[in-house]
Design brief:
The chain is of the alpha/beta class. About 40% of the residues lie in helices and about 15% in strands. The chain has a single domain, classed as Phosphatidylinositol (PI) phosphodiesterase (TIM Barrel, Alpha-Beta Barrel). Helix 3 runs parallel beside helix 6.
Length: about 280
């Protein structure tokens, strides 16, 4: 009986050790990271559709850069391999077109406008000059249909042509970070996550939800920072990762200065929308 209980205790200890080790990330640096990247990041640019400024639009990004903010944006790949700045895979919500980004060409996309305005769907090469030599970009990669390696390579190849651009790359997909770790270790990379058990639209199975919610792919990808959903900040996974490994934390999406203030005091970085962050 005692032998059986001892074996159970050892198994539990090993599981706990693996759990804690699996969420290992790079410790927050004390120097250079802040000088370049410790700004507030406007979520999909400084957008306000009531003022005719749609999300992920050139106008929204220009406002972010001109007001001293970094900007967060989303990148997908079109059918013909162009890098499209668009959050949703479906074009329906933002353009009214009944198609997916990955199913149409750049020519089709260039004819669409955003949310009833005159703003066009931008491509990544349209956005980068706005930030070159100015505030940094937080670029989220959204792979589709197994194109994670190709998407990541195409984005980093384009970024190479802007030597004065400060940027970071983040993704929910650990395979993006794995590619960066292997091929572009110089690029600051971040793991996006949330409590996937609370996400009604999540298509992951239970096991993958558990792994991703608890940041258990970190030991493979070694992220430089964690970008976690603000509403899920009370989760065990991010709390333990922060306490034990000490990486830089970003929180998305923060929607008031009142919510932002305690995060800023902890030297966390906020991805905000709906107010002028200070």
């Amino acid at each position: 009986m005692w032998t059986f209980l001892l074996i159970l205790d050892l198994i539990a200890l090993l599981c706990a050790c693996f759990y804690l080790f699996s969420m290992k990330a790079r410790r927050r640096p004390q120097g250079g990271f802040y000088s370049k990247y410790a700004l507030h990041y406007a979520h999909r640019g400084v957008h306000a559709i009531h003022a005719g400024i749609p999300e992920n639009s050139i106008r929204a990004f220009r406002l972010a850069a001109n007001n001293g903010y970094g900007a967060e944006l989303d990148v997908r790949m079109s059918r013909d391999g162009n890098l499209v700045v668009m959050h949703d895979e479906s074009l329906k919500r933002t353009t009214g077109a009944n198609a997916n980004v990955s199913a149409v060409t750049a020519q089709v996309l260039s004819q669409l406008t955003l949310e009833g305005t005159r703003e066009k769907v931008p491509f990544l090469e349209d956005v980068l000059p706005l930030f070159n030599g100015k505030t940094p970009l937080l670029i989220e990669l959204k792979p589709e249909n197994g194109n994670h390696d190709l998407l990541t390579k195409k984005v980093t190849d384009l970024l190479n042509t802007y030597p004065d651009l400060n940027f970071m790359i983040e993704s929910f997909d650990p395979r993006v970070l794995r590619w960066l770790r292997k091929h572009r270790p110089d690029v600051i990379r971040g793991q996006l996550s949330e409590n996937f058990f609370r996400d009604e639209d999540c298509s992951l199975n239970w096991f993958l939800r558990f792994l991703m919610t608890n940041l258990m792919c970190n030991f493979l990808t070694k992220p430089d920072f964690i970008a976690y959903k603000y509403e899920d900040r009370d989760g065990l996974g991010p709390a333990l990762c922060r306490k034990i490994w000490g990486p830089q934390f970003f929180w998305w999406v923060v929607r008031s200065q009142e919510d932002a203030n305690p995060l800023i005091r902890e030297k966390d970085i906020i991805i905000f929308e709906g107010f002028a962050a200070k």
